[in-house]
Every structure is written in structure tokens, then in C-alpha cells.
Amino acid sequence: MVDLVSQYNNIKPAIDSAILNVIENAQFINGPEVSSFKEELEKYLDVNHVIPCANGTDALQIALMALGLKPGDEVITPSFTYIATTEVMALLGLKPIFVDVDPNTFCIDATLIKSAITEKTKAIVPVHLYGQSAPMNEIMEIANQYNLFVIEDNAQAIGCDYTLSNGKTIKTGTIGHIGCTSFFPSKNLGCFGDGGAIFTNDTDLSIKIKMISNHGQSKQYYHDVVGCNSRLDNIQAAVLRIKLKELDKYNNARRRVADYYDAFFKQYPQITTPSRAENSTHVFHQYTLKLEGINRDELRSHLAKNEIPAMIYYPVPAHKQKMFESFGSADTILPITDWLTERVISLPIHTEMNEEQLNKICNTVAEFING
Ligand SMILES: *Cc1c(COP(=O)(O)O)cnc(C)c1O
Questions:
Q1: For residue 180, what are the CA distances in angstroms to 53, 128, 242, 255?
Q2: Residue 16 contacts by C-beta under 8 Å, 6 or more apart in sequence?
Q3: Run of H or E including 170
Q4: Which end of the chain has fewer CB atoms at under 10 Å, N or C?
Q5: pLDDT tens string 242-277
């Protein structure tokens, strides 16, 4: 699905010397690379505060912890997402309230949010799924009206631009009260292990987030709140500093792959190519098709026979996971989520893809359809 070896080979000298430099200085934790990366990411995102942490799941957990919610409080979120988004809610005793998604953009359907709000609702966690923004203008309007927090799960959309109602274009992850991201190796900005970050423009929240991610510590050995230990290490930060400089180029390369696929697949009525969300650019973390009248499993095994991977993101929506059995969420009716779960398929997309590879993938799909 991705080719991280070729990507590394294209930036190898810079990466090797940056990693070696960390090793030679033996500053593995809280080193200078982490603080430089933090500043560079703040500049890139145009956000007041970036707090690096250990992974994207921690970022979401810490963000929720910073809001001071009580067990039983409700958080509105899509079910059509990676499990981490909602798992952290359960872990903190919060109740995920699952809302259906837009069949075209795969992101939360803002028109369904109001009817999911109750007295216990405290926050909305939209997910910028596959690399484009959830309808943030509508979400922020509802959040302001009902006094709710918004935490953006930006793990799949770093670098994505969104145009606000006032005409200003800003980066996803900086629109709500808090944004969260992951630097898992295959993400659009990936490191060589685990990593994550939390963004906010709110200085009070940034202080809480920093404290929670560092054992609830306000000054050394003074612990004010229950926190956790969630750090980005210096080696990962050194890698990320180099790759951050390439991020826009990487996202453009992904868009070119998507354009190529789009142009090829539009001739097939059985295939719907990804539509573009309003006000949002697309950074194509995934390139995901919807199939109708095509047997997905058979297509997948035909591709596999030709050494082409294809993935289903995600085969079981969160509300139907055993994890949430005790929440009774399996009874929630989410027709679009269920429909998508059975029809989506994601094709390989990455920064180093060439025309020959694209051609082979497209022709292999065509061969299957044409029989
Ligand atoms: C990857 C991902 C996460 C979790 O990130 P990790 O770094 O793997 O913990 C959370 N949400 C979404 C939507 C993701 O894609």
C-alpha cells in the first residue's frame, strides 16, 4: 500500500546524518530535535501550540483528558473511522454517540449532529477521513450554539487546507479547540516508529495538555493532575523535521496518483471515485473507491494474485465492535456506515508511485471488470 523504502532512499543522506547526530549526542528524550520540530510544525500549521506526544491514540486521549469531562459524558463522533478515535472515549468512561457519515465524503454528516445532542453532550470529535476535511464550518457552528468542544482527529489529513465561512483558509487540526495527529510510519507525515502531536490555539488548554502528557507535572516532581507519560523521542523528531519539509511535495504526489486513478476509473459505472468535500483540499491518505455490482472479495483476490495489495478501511464500524457491546451501540442505526463498510476498497497510494505501477493496477482492475 505504501513504499517507505523508496521514500527513505530519496532522502537517505539527510536522514542518516540527523539520526547519527542524535545518537552521538545521546539526547534521546526531550532533546533539541523535539523542540525544533515542535516550532517548525507550529509554523507550518500556523497554530499557537503544538505538543508532541507518543502516538496518535495518546494524542486523542490526552485531548479528551484536557477537557475535564466526567464519566458518562457524551461525545459525538463517526463510527466509520479507525478504532482509536472512539476507543479512547471508552477508556475514559465517556460515551461515544455514533453519528452516520456522508456517503460522498466518508466524513461525519453534520446535518445529523443536532439530533444526537443531549444534556450530557460535551464534545464532537470529527475525523478527517482518508485525507479530506469533515464539514468544519457546520460543525463549529453547532459547537458554538450548544457550547461543545471540538477535537479534530487529523491523523489522516495533515497538510489539508480548509476554507472557513469567513473566507480564510487554514490547516485542518487547527479549526476546532484541539487537533490530534499521528506520525505512524504510513501516515502522510510518518516517522520511523510511533509518534503523535496535539495542536491548539488555546494557551490554557495547551498548558493542561502539556501537563497531562508529562505525568500531570506543573514543575519537576510536583504533580497536579493524573496524567500519563507520552513523549515523542528525539530520533523520531529528527526524522520528522526532514520529512516535514517534504510534506507539501508528498501530498502533491499523492494528489497526482489520485488524478491518474480518477481519470482511468471514470469509464466504469460500477466504480465511484472519491468525491471532493466542500471547502477542503484532499491529501489522499487513502484512495478509496466505492463498488457497486462488483464482488469486492473477488476483486481483492484478483489483485492479490497480481501482487497488488488492496485494503478495506474499515470492515467493521466502531459501533459494531465487541468492545462497545456494553454501550448498546450496536443498536444504533447507521445505514450509510453499514453500506460503505460493504462497498469501499482502498488501492495503493504513496509518494513514490510511478506510471508503470499505476498502469498495472488500473489494468488489473479493468481486467477483472471486463472478465
Ligand atoms: C492512525 C490513526 C489514529 C491513531 O494513531 P496511532 O499513532 O496509530 O496511535 C487515530 N485516528 C485515525 C483516524 C487514524 O488513522
A1: 10, 11, 20, 23
A2: none
A3: strand 169-171
A4: C
A5: 999 999 999 999 999 999 999 999 999 999 999 999
pLDDT digits (tens, 9 = 90+) for 104-125: 999 999 999 999 999 999 999 9
Q: Is the CB of 81 under 6 A from ligand 1?
A: yes
Q: Say how far apart CA 296 and CA 313 lie, in whole Å.
A: 13
Please report which confidence band the pLDDT of residue 74 belongs to, taking 50, 70 and 90 as the band edges: very high
Domain range 247-370, CATH architecture:
Alpha-Beta Complex (3.90)
Looking from the CA of residue 285, the nearest atom of ligand 1 is: 15
A 10 A CB-CB count for 306 gives 14
Only one residue has cell 466504469, namely: 268
Q: CATH 3.40.190.10: does it fit domain 4-244?
A: no
**Which runs of E-coded beta strand occur in 54-148?**
74-78, 95-99, 121-124
Q: How many angstroms separate the CA atoms of 365 and 371, rounded?
A: 10
Q: Are 81 and 314 in contact (CB under 8 A)?
A: yes
Question: Can you tell me the distance from the alpha carbon of 76 to that of 95, in angstroms, rounded to the nearest whole number?
Answer: 9
Ligand 1 contact via 288 beta carbon (within 6 Å)? no
E strand spans, 176-308: 178-182, 196-200, 217-219, 222-223, 271-272, 287-291
Phi and psi at residue 324, in whole multiples of 5°? Answer: -100, 15
Query: Pick from 103, 114, 127, 95: which is nearest to 329 by CA?
Result: 95
pLDDT in tens, 27-67: 999 899 999 999 999 999 999 999 999 999 999 999 999 99
Instruction: Confirm or reject: Cβ of 184 under 6 Å from ligand 1.
Output: yes
Residue among 62, 85, 127, 284 to mutate when testing ligand 1 (max atoms within 8 A of CB) = 85
Report angle CA 197, 66, 109 to the nearest 5 degrees. 75
Q: How far apart are CA 57 and CA 55, in angstroms?
A: 6
User: How many Å apart are CA 41 and CA 34, to the nearest integer?
Assistant: 10
- Hey, what's the torsion of the CAs at 323, 327, 328, 331, to 10 degrees? -80
Domain residue limits, the chain: 4-244, 247-370
How far apart are the CA of 283 and the centre of ligand 1, in A? Answer: 16
